Amino acid sequence: MEKKKYSSYAEIDRDLEILKLEKDINYQKLVLSFQRTKESITPQNIVNGFVSSYTDYFKNSYPQILQSILPYVIGWFINKKRGS
After folding, report:
1. What would the 3-class secondary structure string for 24-82 be?
2. 7, CA 20 to 30 Å: which among 24, 37, 39, 68?
3. Full-model pTM
4. Cα 65 to Cα 72: distance, rounded to the nearest angstrom
5. φ, ψ at 24 (rounded to 5°)
6. CA 67 vs CA 9, 60, 70, 73: distances in Å
C-alpha cells in the first residue's frame, strides 16, 4: 500500500474521521450478524435444518432405494404365495 502524504492537519483529521466511521459501520455489521446468528440457532431451527437435509437426501435417492428394496419385496410376495 502506498503511503499517503498530507499537506495539512485538516486532511489527516478528515481521513481519521472516515476511518472511524468505517470502523463503526463494520462493528455494527458484526453486531447485527451475531444477533442474526444467535436468533437462528434455536432448537426448532436446528431440527428443521437436520430434517430438511435428510428429506432432500432421501428425495433425491428415492429411485436408488426403491431399486435396492424392490427385489426383496417381490421375493417376499412370491414366497408368501407359495406358502413357504
Report:
1. HHHHHHHHHHHHHHHHHCCHHHHHHHHHHHHHHHHHHCHHHHHHHHHHHHHHHHHHHHH
2. 24
3. 0.50
4. 12
5. -65, -40
6. 77, 13, 5, 10
- Residue type (1 letter), 59: K
Dist CA 25 CA 60 (whole Å): 43
4 residue type, one letter: K
* pLDDT at res. 83: 64
Q: Give the Å distances, CA to CA, from 76 to 9, 54, 82.
A: 89, 28, 10
Tell me: the pLDDT tens digits for 10-33?
999 999 999 999 999 999 999 999
C-alpha cell at 83: 406358502
6, 12 Cβ separation under 8 angstroms = yes
29-60 per-position pLDDT tens digit: 999 999 998 888 888 877 887 777 777 766 77
